[in-house]
Records
---
Amino acid sequence: MAPLTSGGATLADTRALADVPRGRSLWSDARRRFWRNKAAVAGLVVLTAIALFALLGPLAAPWSYEEIDWAVLGNVSEAGRPSLATGHWFGTDSLGRDLFARTVQGTQISLMVGIVGALIAVVVGTLYGAVAGYFGGRVDGAMMRTVDVLMSIPYMFVLILLLVVFGRSILMLFIGIGLISWLEMARIARGQTLALKGREFVEAAVATGVHPFRIILRHIVPNLLGVIIVYATLLVPSMIIYESFISFLGLGVQEPLTSWGALINVGAAEMRNGTIWQLLFPLGFFVMGLFAFFFIGDGLRDALDPKDR
Amino acid sequence: MIAFILRRLMVAVPVLLLLVVVTFVLMYAAPGSPFATERGVPPFVLANLEREYGLDRPFAVQIWTYVSRIVTQFDFGPSFVYRDQDVNDLIRQGFPVTLTYGFWAFLLAVLVGGTLGIVAAIRHNSWLDYLAVGISVGAQVLPNFVLAPILVLVFTLWLGWLPGGGWRGGQAEYIVLPVIALGTSYMASIARIARASMLEVLSSNFIRTARAKGLPGWRIVLHHALKPALLPIVSYLGPAFVGMITGSVVIDIAFSTGGIGQFFVASALNRDYGVMMGITVLFGALTIFFNLLVDVAYAWIDPKIRY
Amino acid sequence: MKRLTLLASVATLAAATLAAATAATAPAALAAEVAPGDTLAEDQTFSYSILDQFPTLDPQLNEEVQGSHVISQLFEGLTRQDGDGNVIPAGATQWTSEDNTVWTFTLRDDAKWSNGDPVTAADYVYAWRRAADPATASPYSWYVELSSIAGAAEVISGAAAPDTLGVEAVDDHTLKVTLTQPLPFFPAVVTYATFMPTHEATVEAFGPDWTKPGNIVSNGAYTLEELAVNEFFRLAKNPQYWDAENVQITEITGYIINDRNQSVTRWEAGEFTMMDDLPAGTYPDLLAQYPDETFSTPRLCSYFYAINVTESGNPALQDVNVRRALSYMLDRNVIVDQVLKGGQLPAYNFAHVQTAGFEPPEIDYASWSQQERMEKARELMAQAGYGPDNPLELDLIYNTSDDHKALATVAAQMWKPLGVNITLSNYEWQSYIDIRGEQNFDLARSGWCGDYNEASTFLDLLTTTHGSNDGKYSNAEVDALMKASRTMENPNEAYTEVEQIVADEMAIIPVYHYTQNFLLDDDIRGWPMNNVENNWYIQDIYRVVTE
């Protein structure tokens, strides 16, 4: 099997030289395939809508995310219902705060946590894992033992200690999540690299004296892409769940800020008090966001995977 | 292979020691004493307590005592909060609980999730694929701290079939709900991994060759595709173990199972140095062990991997 | 998260109700007295849920309320409380004193340990010395000192040997205690777990493991059968208990459930008999649904915001006008009626208004309308130079709990129109008391529960040297009055005066006075509804047949 980039380039070149007037690179090819995938496009639309909701929501909301509607407080299960008349389109939380505004705010935080966490994991984890797997031997041993050590430090302790020593803040949350999110990615990338290393195209590159880092970047990493993307789409929602787990432990963002996870957590706790919208709206966004990430990732996988050609 | 395992085990020892030291330092850097109370403990009472737990001695001596006690007597020392219990007692009680529901949850996840993933891959882009993907994403969508109260509401309050919590030595009716709540989150991950890797394998050259030779579909799947497709699931064993500990926090809180997860978080929040250290060391050792297991399993499944 | 505060913030100690405290007392009714007309149910088991695992069942080491409830079922001290909080005989049948300084307790001669050994005065002496002994390292040893027993301070600090403690076994059934100062309510002090006897042979044989099921030897109405940390524990009726024939409940099971909403669901499913500490705001709905099983009773605790008046706090807080403005602006009726909804009382003074004998002063702003308060607050704040144009930035700290979070959020929004911007900071309990104790805050959520039913248990907190005066309020007059009150004929007058000063200077921002909100199956009889310290003894209750 030919390595992705050179193969794609060759293909494109051949076509460019032939009768096709405009050249089609691998990426435009992939783009075309992606747009043909209905689920992926739907996912992209939903995700765009959610992103717009997070960005433009504050402009639309009649209430701010921290304001208490005193007329509702104390009678949330009746007066706090979702209603167009009161301006609480999603209803209110148990303290009479507007759930629409809070969901907007929570969406901002959750998307940020998910994307930042996944980005760190993808960039750091892939390179780290690929380098370790490719060089093997002592380098691999040292690098992966480091990952072992980091992984065997219960990250909850690290996060709790970080949040306790430096105080709770979004920045600490990012640092805490960034510290651990790349570890699994590194292990997976390394495992895949081990399998790729024995392939002919890598051995060919080695035989022709290509610089190791070039091999990693040009030949190994592109071939990891499918796995990376599938894993990264898994990672964004799992980062979001992870953040909510931290919120569940009471160590998440400080009030009055919130997140999807924190809202869902509260909604689930209040489930039996007749305020089910407190669970359903944030959960609805969570579900939509998650499905969107999933379908987009799947679409990208099909689009980028050269083996499906 | 045996040399490889031995080498890895030998590396594990300094890794664990390092872990002990790092945790010790982090713990001491954190503010908050395990003995502080709202009413303010008088200084001489505090002095008595610190002497009792050896906290008045130099840092290096404390670490040395701690490590040597573990090595020579396998004794993790006393709990700083639960005065009637030592750390060994707590681990002896909590760990089997977590391991039991963790094991069943993982098994459930592999069976259901693996089947879903493989079926989805074989019938790629059919309604079966969409259904399987839908189920697995649906399972992942519901975080277990949402699922747990729903399960209790349905199976305990409305149907009255199962107890809403407790463990009672692991009687079957107490295990069911924790296993479902914990297993669903694994299931989704495993289904996705299985599907992705099965698709990968099915489109690889050797399967094409097999197809070209005219082998029946089910034989291709069972004899050729299954083993390489399972490889990434094996690599999930390590993360699954970590997930078990993390998930166990939610499960223990939601179902009062008395597992290790609850001890783990409570000890960190309460500055129970003894329990915190004990579980960290245990957890660290087991993580290293599981990672080793994953590598061994990799080598066993795919002999092409070099060490 | 709420549920991980292991050491509960309060510790209930002995009551100082003086009713039964002097001279020989006629033996009051003990154990469950089945009322005429009640038919005992077949099933006499009792079960309940608690939020967090108690750290210990060792009477001398215990320092918090959940453990002390269980210890009160397992062990019996010299005295205990009845359903109204009065002190009644238990391990002792009668007691006398000379000048309230030297106390002599006569023990009942039929009391036995669960292994059949007789309970003797020596067991009490052993336990009390053990509580004070530095080798025991009890976090509650200071309580021995607080009770004024001669030599306690020296023993605790290690300056004297434990056997110099002022407690002595005159004979097997006579215990003599010497105090350093007259303490008329000493028999109430000894109801608390610290002063319950322990079985020397068992403690010496098993060391720290002595309280484990199978090892433990106790002298109360129940014995410990099973215990799984963070899961459950089970007690069974102790056949050796001297009054066993009047103990109706045969088995007690406690479930540790870290989530109170979950706990409510499981109570509804019929998994246990009782749960207390209902989640904020759920009381009215539960009452509507279970009118005969939902209760709200007074509880001697006060909720307030401590104000840091030291250098480390915002300097504006040293201005009495700012403190007043903050307090006026807080709409306590909204907090009580719309957030907590459990019958709590809005508080304008510190000591719980239902404290025995206590007469709260006429506090001006208590009688104003909220409108008036808010106008006044705006005025005062403007005088101090703050307002929406020149906002005051304050840091409000609270420990993890859904209820504290809700209250802090609401308070922050109430203060906002004053031009006060609140930053909420949430900490875990152990960090929280550290931070609060070091005055690293502007406002701090605080709660205080009475150690005994008398106002000084609250007001002492506001004296300069008190260990829990975390806002560091200091007023020479308050200090002098509180000191003088100890020897006063009627100290309650002094307490009223102190409250007046505290209200004028707004030393703290009082928020509300507690109630105990709980669910209890309707076939339980004899539950102590009027015990404001929330002390209960399962041997006093029983189950009846209901239609």
Note: The CA atoms of residues 180 and 308 of chain A lie 33 Å apart.
---
Amino acid sequence: MKRSLGFIIITASLGVGLCAFVYRAVHIRAETPAAASGTQRVAEGGPPASAELAKMREEIASLQRQVSSQRQMPVAEPVKAEADAKDLRTDSEMRAEGERKHREYMAGVEAAFRNETIDARWSPATSSVVQTAISADNALRALTRDVECRSSTCRVEIADDGSGSLGKALPMLALQVGPALPSVSSTRVEDGSGASTMVLYMSRQNESP
Amino acid sequence: MSNKLLKTGSVFLLAGVLASIGATAHAANINTSGVVFRNFNAGEALDIDYLTNGARDINANPRSVVAPIPRSPVASAPSPSFFIDGENTANTSTSCTVFVYDFFGNPVASQFFTEASAGASLRNWDHAVTFTAAQLATFNYASVVCTIPGSANGILHGVTAVQP
């Protein structure tokens, strides 16, 4: 009983405080900009106002400015509308959609690679660059299964032994072959027995979204 | 007493204002200082030196450094992009690869670039890297690995995720 009485008193106090504050905020807004600054009023020796109150007013004014600037930021409406629509989905749906899009994208990359003709000059030269970079790394050398270069893309298959060594080796491979093959798209292929293979499509053309 | 009430009221109002900002806010560009770059290889920690405006390699040889690129998990823009900023002294270069990986840790895509100062003076650079929306899905992460020149001949100033 005592507890609930205390709760009611606290709630009532907070309510009164909120009302008082709203009243003060409306009052401040009605004042001129110069008079609205509590610090100025104190400095000019105007009506008495505590430094604390002046500081609070300044903070409120600052917040109002922030809110105002947020609202004035230009927002591309179609993008905003799309984002709002997607916000309504659950995370698992968004994740599933992301995976689906990536699968479709990688299917397109694979098809484009298969449609490339073999450039008799570029293919062996670039394949050699990739093989050299792979040979320089013990882990990669042991795990790499296949390197195939055509006219602008190389397809590299690397077994993932689950040791985490790929996470260290792949960035170095990307940096080493980067001058020749700056753009990489990759996907993991599971073979059903728990083992997986990373398939990298390394291209000399930068992605054009 | 009125001050106390005012204080209590203001706490509630500020919370409300902040909540309303949060409710209407959209992802914005995220600027991250190059001070977040750190040694990519464990044994090279003492080779990386930090400044208020970034990180550099004080060993005589080039070193690789890695940094996260913070981004909001928002629906992908048509052309999600990142900017990497740095500087190089005369006749030195910096190479970077921006990596995107999914929430299982699988690499999804990467883009490599090199910036150099071929002239006789220091060069500040600002490099944009763009991925497709399919590559940079909502929850994908981004990081960047750079090889910077030794003897403090290059500084990485920062990374930016551009988001609508």
Note: Chain B has one helix and eleven strands.
